[in-house]
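Please think about what follows:
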Amino acid sequence: MPVNASAIRDLLLPGLRGIEGEYKMIPTQWDKVFERGTSRMAVERTVEARFLGLAALKSEGGSVYFDNAAGERFVYNQRHVELGLGYAITQIAMEDNLYKDQFRADSLGLYKSMAQTKEILGANVLNTATTYNPQIGGDGVALCATNHPVDGATWANKPTVDVDLTEAALQNAAIAIRYFPDQANLRVMARPDKLVVPPQLEYVARRLLDSDLRPGTSDNDVNAMKATGYLNNGYTVMDFLTSAYAWFVTTDIKGLLYLQRREVESDMQVDFATKNLLVTATERYSFGYKNPRSIYGSFPSS
């Protein structure tokens, strides 16, 4: 049923002081975590390959060791989704509305709804980071796991036992990130870049990263995380993270990816038969990842 006169009955009469219901919205947050790109395909595919491993000792007169194991290992898929929202409002409701400047029939917050939907979908990549998604493929395990496979070994981008956000936990995350390997099990140059937290951990993050001295003690020690230059981009809060306790550290390896397939488009027309105003908006994009080395996460339950 379209928005009709009975749905805005008080807006048909004079004497209202004003209309409440439209508010300032949360600023864009997903772009603080995801790399932004564009796409011209239904599915974007990224291959992770193995390059050469370590060199081997060569005896006098002996043959050089040949490493012929290089090649493709995993494929990460990112499939776009289409989002849409619309509404209909009757001609009588538009004609008799006395407060058109405050209750605009051609708007009703359509773009705000599309934007917040995008925030939720972006945060869901982190909310589901411990659940393997076979549509993405990749290395066969979840985004954050303790058993990411490389040739002859595994590596972890989450602790074996999930821990709360503390100074020690953050330092252990930074050390773990330094040990990230490539597919040939060579250590790569990976460093912590940014702390990502839900609103409930914002104050903990502020104390851990912004104090000059060691947080939570009376010692005159320096704040080691700040002094070493890690997490130079500080922290960001994502309001749509569903766990009050989970926290993440993004790294300087780009791997969390937002791809725009089609920008948001709106359309408006009057239905020939009913004279209702029809307003719609659609957009096509995807959130995903192409490299789990881009993030470290911990998921305590309390």
Q: What stands out?
A: The mean pLDDT is 93. Helices lie at 91-96, 110-127, 167-178, 202-210, 224-227.
